[in-house]
Amino acid sequence: MKLVMKKKTRVIVRFFVAILFTLLLFVGAILLFMHFYPTFGKTPDSKQREVYGQKTKLFDGKQFRNESVQHILGKRSPDRERIRPEKQLPAVSPGKLERLQEGELKFVWFGHSSTLFQMGERNIFLDPVLSERTSPVDFAGPQRFSELAISIDEVPELDVVFISHDHYDHLDYKTIKGIDSRVKRYVVPLGIDVCLKGWGVPEEKIVSLAWWESVELEGISFTLIPSQHFSGRNPLKMNRTLWGGIYFTDSFHSVYYSGDTGYFNGFAEVYERLGAPDVMLADSGQYNAGWAGIHMTPWQAVQAASDAHAKRFVPVHWGAFVLSNHPWDEPPKGAVEEGLKLGVDVATPRLGQLVDVDQLDQQATERWWENYE
Q1: Could you tell me which of 143, 15, 106 has the C-alpha nearest to residue 314?
Q2: Measuring CA to CA, how many Å separate 353 from each of 95, 142, 148, 175?
Q3: Per-residue pLDDT tens for 240-258?
C-alpha cells in the first residue's frame, strides 16, 4: 500500500511540475515575443530617463504621470447596442493631394484620429494609422469598420508627422515603416523618439518635446500641449513615454489637435497662451465611465472647444475602430447637439473628404452618418 501511495505521489508531483514548467515556458515565450517583436517598440533606457526628469516634473524617474488623474480605470459603463455599423462605412476619395498656396488650409480626416492637414505648401499628418487593425499583430485586435480613402502607398510627401502618444490606434508600425521614406520630420512627445529610432527612423528626423515646448519647422510653429491620458505598448512598460496634443500655426492659420485626453482645465490655458485656433480636433469617441478621466465624451469635447475659443470644431477618435461600448455614431450626434447649445460651430466631414477650414460651415455640415443607422 505504501509503495502504491508513493508512486501516486510521484505521479502527481511530476504532473504539477510539468504544468509549472509548461507555464514558465509559455510566460517566457510571451516575454521574449514582446521584447523582440518590432511592433511593441523600444522604450527609453536609464540615461534617457535621467534627461526626462530634468525636463519635466511629470516624470518620476520611471514613469510619466498626469497631474490630476490618479486612477485610470473604474467601473465600466453598461454595454449598449449599435457599437458597430451593420455595413462598412464608405469613404470618398480626396483626389490627388497637390500642394496648396500660401495662406490656404485644408484637411482630410481618414477615420479615428488620422488626419492629414495641408497648411500652405506643407503637409502635416496627425497620428497616421492606415492599417486594418489597431493591434501589435495582423491577425487579431480591433478591426476597421470603415473604408480607407487612401492607402499607405498613396500618402503624399509629408513635411511633418505628429504622433500624440504610443497606443496602437495612434502609432502604427506598418504605417510608419510604409511612409517614412516620404517624411521629412517627426514631432513627438518625449520617449516616442526611442520607439521610432528602434524602427529605423533616422534620429535627425525626430524632434521630441515636453509639454509647452515648441519647435519651428518649415515655417510652422509646433507646440506640444498637455493632455490627460497614459501610454504603453507593452503592459510591463507602462507610461514610459509622454503623451499630448499639438498646436501648430503659420502666419495665416492655427490648428489645435487635443490627442487622447479627458476633460480638464488645460483647454482654456491653450487659449490664454496661444490664442483661439481656427479649427480644433478633439477626442470625442471611445469614451466610457470606466476611463472617464482619460477620454472625453462628445459633449465634453464641445465644451473643451468652447474653453479653447476654437472658431470651428471637428470631433475625431471615432468612425474606424470599436474600442468602447457606445453607439458608433453617438460622437458626431452628441457633438452637433452640444454645439447648438453652446454656440460652437461643429463640422463633420465625410471620411476622406478634402475640406477647406475657412469653408467648413459650407462643406462639412451634412449629417451623413444618419444614412448608415
Answers
A1: 106
A2: 9, 24, 11, 20
A3: 999 999 999 999 999 999 9
